[in-house]
Amino acid sequence: MELWIDADDTLWENNVFFERAFAEFADYLAHSCYSREEVRALLDEIEHVNNRIHGYGSANFTRNLEQCFERHSERGVSAEDRRHIRQLGEELLQHPLHLIEGVEETLAYLSLRHELLLCTKGNHAEQQSKIDRSGLVRHFRHVRIVREKDAGTYRGLAAERGVTDGACWMIGNSPKSDINAALEAGLGAVYVPHRHTWHLEHEPVPEGHPRLVVLERFSELQRLF
Ligand SMILES: [Mg+2]
Question: E strands, 98-179, where?
Fold first, then answer.
């Protein structure tokens, strides 16, 4: 069996650091009318457009914060404002790498029985840095850092790997890019929800789908495979 495994918020914590940076940004913007949730919605609009053009990662997130500040600041934008916002982005590049509970031993177990492929999307250098710092690469036979994780990406990867339906599962925390896209491409999918999943990745997953399994914890993969 071939198991493809997402990385951010599946193997290690990621989005929680972006959420913290956003909270600091919203405090810094200190808008007189907009609540934090409303600022979040304004940033979402910008992210939705820009992610299609520029992709993901902290450099793009920082650019989005800067645009949000330019549009909505009530006091103009000073050089100090730009410096402060860019600092928030740079801190994201250096956040500590916290593995999610049970990941290390579960990968050790799975790698003895199946062929593991790490499949993550984002900026290549940034994702590679996290993979290196995680110390998990020894469990994986293959690593793929892709720009977008949609059905087309999974079909291409399935053709490249020569896997057939029923012999390959995508495992991850994102309903949109790990689960629904993999199901659409004909793969099996294992959804391991994470409470800090980036909300632009939220979507309903199908109920009772024959190729979908939902687990509470990553370590439960040891019962499944
Ligand atoms: Mg993820």
Answer: 115-121, 142-146, 168-172
